[in-house]
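Lecture notes, unit on protein representations.

Consider one protein chain, 406 amino acids long.
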Amino acid sequence: MTMHAHGLLRSVTATLVAAAAVGVLAGVSPAAAAHRPDRGEVLSVVPVSDLTTAQTAAFVGGMGVDTAGVKYGVRGYRITYRTITPDRTPTTATGLLVLPKDGRHGRLDLVSDTHGTMVNRAYAPSVGEDFGRLSPYLQASAGRAVAAPDYLGLGQGPGRHPYMDTASSVSASLDLLRAARTAARGLGRPLTGDVYATGFSQGGQVAAALAKELDRGADRTFRLKALAPVSGPYDVEHAEMAGLLDGSVNPISGVFYLSYWLTAQNRLHPIYKDPAEVFKPPYAGVVEGLFDGGHQEEEIVAALAPDVRSLLTPAFYERLGRPDGALLDAIRSNDGTCDWKPRVPVRLYTATGDTDVVITNSRSCAAQFAAHGVQVPVVDQGATDHFGAFRASGPQIVKFFDSVAR
């Protein structure tokens, strides 16, 4: 769940290849593709970036992340592929495939790297050379392929993003793994089938849920090897929602996340019929339009209230403390991502100083794993903030995956 940082590095001189598709891979013609709604089917692969090792290090280091693990340059490709909507009807989505270069030969392990909260579709990993590419470039520069989904409704996918709908984020992520396998083979860089799952914030929750599905055999051509998410909202009901109400979550982030979540979840669950049932004026009249995929975070924050109590009607504010009905259904449909027994190494990364996704989420996740008999370390990065938690954790996750691979 990360508010986008527009002040992050944009000056990297990556060689952006002209946006001409590599083409539909594996001998599938466009006409045939139009009549085959196979999940994970590749529709196009477009080169989007080509960085030397030095440029990759400059990109990573420019965002305040340790570059010691950067060994290779990277090439990025936007994949358009088939997947499903929350109601399981066919749709398309886009995602980023990043491959290491500069002498990295042989079959590649694959990292699933799921991003945090984004409201503007142009900043999704396959489209924007920005924070959404930090972790994918960092992971690929260590010598593994990376599949980073844009999710539904972001990047160049149709419709609005169903924010925090874990099921569709997982299906989009799993289908991108399938598409990445096809694309990598077509690019002459075949994969091993081993998958390492990571993600930040919203993506941390998605990574845990995706790992759960892979561990259960959702696609037996992939073998889950490790899970290492950062600051995920694994327990919305008991940790994140409580933080919104008791002040543990900082007010601006709380307003932003809650507004995004309510307007998106209302399209999936009948939480309200009229925004005025939930939001005070003047916010009721503008809130849904702000999350159309075209606004910047700064615009949204400026148009909304300074804190959650000022944003919501008194009745709905009280309801948040005692959720029921469709509101409770929406909350619980996104929890339980840690309620399983992993058979692979797991580490949960977080920070005491994170006031966007409070540390109690990771502690709750660890407790759920412990209830299944698995003790999972919670790596606390200390007093740093939400983004700081990732900056400290990213290089550590690379080393963790390296240790598992050995």
